[in-house]
Amino acid sequence: MKVKICGITDLTTAIAAVDYGADALGFVFAESKRKITEVKAKEIIAHLPKEVIRVGVFVNESKERIEEIASSVGLTHVQLHGDETTVFSESLSYPVIKAISIHDEQSLKTIENYKCEYVLIDGPKGKYRGGNGLSFDWNSISAEDLKDKKVILAGGLHDKNVEEAINLIKPYMVDVSSGVETEGKKDLNKIQSFIIKAKGSQTGGTRNEFIYTAE
Fold it and tell me: Least crowded by CB within 10 Å, which of 73, 107, 193, 210?
């Protein structure tokens, strides 16, 4: 199981997460308590191994600005967490992760519209578009809903429930931010515990086994 630690704001946490086995790190460039500057993100990314997926999180940002930041800091993927259209997501030159907040059946249907590289299914919107620590009813998702999608599961995950979530949803990757924090700061012990639980949750393949390869 692949793991993404989102909301990275310092080098110590980034390096520790990678050492513990994180496959991807997320850097938030939208309004958030975890928002990072381009200068800081570039500094951190410069110290990361090349195989680590480096994701920039944006909310209703212009294409030009997204491309500029991605190129400047060294992103490998772009995560769209706003009201971006399918046309917009397909216009970007970087692999796209489109986030969908799950709150009813209609929100599930929007997954079908996006032909991007990954679909991130998240909990309901809170104060911010993501990273609110809110989960959704995992039992409301069926295999048919996620057919032929590279699914990243987010929303309310932590080391006590990630195994259950993985077994129910069978995603390509799990994404966590607030679930590995203590008093609003990344907690290295929680990061390590989360990654151990996530990667030890399955010994077999996933629903997306045909693309279960290194990035």
Answer: 210
Q: Cα separation of 126 and 130, whole Å?
A: 7
CATH topology of domain 2-211: TIM Barrel (3.20.20)
Predicted TM-score of the model (pTM) = 0.85
pLDDT, tens digit, for every residue of 144-191? Answer: 666 677 899 998 899 999 999 998 888 999 999 999 999 999 999 999
Q: Cα–Cα distances in Å, from 151 out to 13, 146, 148, 194?
A: 25, 7, 9, 18
Structure tokens at 64: 């030009």
Domain borders along the chain are 2-211
Radius of gyration of the chain (CA): 16
- What secondary structure, in 3-state letters, does 102-166 show? CCCHHHHHHHHHCCCCEEEEECCCCCCCCCCCCCCCHHHCCCCCCCCCCEEECCCCCCCCHHHHH
Q: Of 53, 158, 140, 45, which Cα lies nearest the Cα of 102?
A: 140
**Unique residue bearing structure tokens 């578009």:** 129
Neighbouring residues of 215: CB distance < 8 A, sequence distance ≥ 6:
23, 51, 53, 76
> Looking at the annotation, which residues are catalytic?
6, 122
Strand 181-182, strand 77-80: pairing? unpaired
User: Are 28 and 36 in contact, with CB atoms under 8 Å apart?
Assistant: yes
**53 closest CA partner among 152, 139, 158, 146:** 152
